[in-house]
Design goal:
With 62 residues, this protein is α+β, with helices and mostly antiparallel strands. It is built from 2 helices and 4 strands; from the N terminus they run ββαβαβ. A 4-stranded mixed β-sheet has the order 3-1-2-4, with helices on both faces.
Length: 62
């Protein structure tokens, strides 16, 4: 599984999630279906580690 940083817009507010998935396309498909727009980038290891240490949710996309 790879880590991706996902930016999307929900109710006029821009949000960012970290998602774990096999492919970038899987993440894009899930967030585009749910929110209509998203930008997906590879998530650096330090951001993933920081999110986990702060107890932030990490979404798993199948």
């Amino acid at each position: 599984m790879n880590a991706y940083e996902v930016t999307f817009r929900k109710s006029g507010v821009y949000c960012v999630n970290i998602a774990m998935a096999k492919t970038k396309e899987a993440v894009e498909a899930r967030y585009t279906d749910k929110y209509g727009w998203c930008a997906v980038e590879a998530c650096p290891a330090y951001k993933l580690a920081t999110a986990r240490s702060k107890g932030c949710p990490v979404v798993t996309v199948n």
